[in-house]
Design goal:
The chain contains 4 helices and 9 strands, in the order βαβββββββααβα. It is α+β, with helices and mostly antiparallel strands and about 230 residues long.
């Protein structure tokens, strides 16, 4: 099973159309069923609950008390049912703030949209000190992009990693390391336009032409303020 390969340290959320009826009854499945269900359970619903319990999951939908319009997912004539579910690990349930159906939004002719609100804490970004080297991303021309792609593909460090979290870190480190070698680095606080492929003589001339009228405008504003002060 795919779930068995996902480390316990990672947050797990599964959502989709299971086409099974779990029903309102929570007996024998208290850890997975919060008691706020809808309709009758069928054999397919039993299979879903057995799967949820086996992998220590919870059906998030059933832990939020809602009125019928926010419970019914599939409606056709007089038939009303609830067959779409969100599953998560029992220890991640605290991150789920709300789960309900949006009656006015349909993702098909008869299916309504099921929404799960999740709040996760993200690590704070470290403030970068002035002077720390930064990659010259503005020098990424089509030629450099080709060289960068070849270098990243050649290294292929992430292919030797099994854990998804570690794979992400290894890939990010590979991208940064390759970009530094191909594009180079510069110190923060310097002229970031210097060395950019688009910062040519024509652009410089246009910039100079714009600076003079702008300076005249600022000076005229200052002169106007001095005139007003003298009048007062």
């Amino acid at each position: 099973m795919v779930i068995q390969e996902i480390p316990r340290s990672e947050r797990l959320f599964i959502g989709g159309d299971f086409n099974r009826h779990i029903g309102v009854d929570s007996s024998e499945y208290d850890s997975a069923h919060g008691g706020f269900g809808f309709g009758e359970r069928n054999n397919g619903g039993v299979s879903v609950l057995d799967f949820v319990v086996a992998y220590e999951l919870s059906v998030v939908n059933f832990f939020f008390k809602k009125k019928e319009d926010h419970l019914v997912i599939f409606k056709s004539g007089s038939v009303k049912t609830r067959i779409d579910y969100f599953l998560t690990r029992a220890d991640s349930w605290r991150f789920c703030k709300d789960c309900k159906v949006i009656p006015s939004e349909c993702i098909g002719s008869q299916h309504r949209l099921l929404v799960l609100d999740v709040k996760l804490k993200c690590s704070k970004w470290k403030k970068m000190r002035v002077g720390d080297p930064t990659i010259k991303w503005w020098t990424l021309t089509s030629e450099n992009a080709m060289l960068l792609s070849e270098k990243i593909t050649e290294e292929g460090a992430w292919r030797r990693v099994e854990d998804a979290g570690t794979m992400w870190k290894v890939m990010a480190d590979c991208f940064r390391r390759s970009a530094k070698e191909v594009l180079g680095t510069s110190r923060r606080g310097g002229n970031r336009m210097k060395g950019a492929w688009w910062w040519n003589e024509e652009v410089k001339e246009k910039a100079r032409d714009e600076k003079e009228p702008y300076a005249d405008f600022l000076n005229s504003g200052a002169d106007g303020e001095r005139e007003v002060s003298r009048v007062r």
